[in-house]
Amino acid sequence: MECSKCRRKAVVQQRYSGLRLCETHFLEDVERKIKRRLRKEIKLRSGDVLAVALSGGKDSSVLLYVLCEIFRQRRDINVVAITVDEGIEGYRAKYVRRARKLADELSVDLFLFSFEDEFGMTLDEIVQAAKLDADLRDKAPCTFCGVLRKTLLNRVGRELGVAAIATAHNLDDEAQTILMNYIRGDITRLFRHSVRSEKFVPRVKPLRDVPEEEVALYGMLKGLEIEFEECPYKRLSFRFEILSWLNDFERRHPGTRYSILRGFERLVQDGGRHFELKSCERCGEPCAGDLCQACKLLSKVLPKVSA
Ligand code: SF4
After folding, report:
1. Distance, CA of 116 to CA of 212 (rounded, Å)
2. Which of the four, 126, 127, 141, 194, has the lowest number of CB atoms within 10 Å?
């Protein structure tokens, strides 16, 4: 199989674009998509700090690597990493070690925070406590994990004074999230991230246009140590059901993930303007209602953990 742009051997066939790409053209293609997304989503000024949410998994490792490469030429922008240890027995510690190792190799400052220190309990404890609450017992662990991690990243990003937080959501993650919110009819969540607020540290998702399998291939070709171990809670999530369905659909109809993302972005250009944010009555973090999701959740599980 030959590259569509030169005669070299292709390493990937992009069914959604009809192209076959050799290693050089594939790496260029991924980097072009990342740079285009960065230009579209954020304008960094001299002296700014850009934080990368680094879990130590393949996506965030690739993201940190690429951003370090991009900003190597701009010494006035400082790239740092923020790692959150949710407290998942037998799983997270290995990724935290990996995150530290990569940050050291790339000479990036890493700031480590944990659910246990910040919220008084690990994710494992929250999951156990939630089983004792009638309203929470049917919720998947990823729901608690996602809400608390977002809140924590926003808070520490603000405290560290970073200009933006880059998260490693790839094309698959984004298409899944959009579908999940459509299926739930959750308009608030659908538009929340398109709304700007002084209290929200701007988020940027540079991998948004890169399919998951291409992120993994990019990492392997660059020699990054990539782990494919799955979080023990992943298969309990609604996202996992959507993921399986979407992968099957993408196989049969290449380009589905891009269509979902592009359609949503067109919708946001108009609909998102009418969405307003308030401040949480308890912690002051931005939210759509009177209390933010994190405070609602913590007020239910904390008494059960300490009981
Ligand atoms: Fe958290 Fe779910 Fe990701 Fe595990 S799979 S780290 S529980 S969001």
Report:
1. 30
2. 194
Q: What is the pLDDT of residues 9-26, one digit of tens each?
A: 999 999 999 999 999 999
pTM: 0.90
pLDDT digits (tens, 9 = 90+) for 100-127: 999 999 999 999 999 999 999 999 999 9
| Radius of gyration for the alpha carbons in the chain, expressed in angstroms and rounded | 20
Please give the CATH number for the structural domain made up of 42-306.
3.40.50.620
Residue ranges with strand state E in 90-181: 110-114, 164-166
Cα(92) to centroid(ligand 1), Å: 10
Every domain of the chain and the residues it spans: 42-306
Question: To test the ligand 1 pocket, which listed residue (91, 142, 143) has its Cβ within 8 A of the most ligand atoms?
Answer: 142
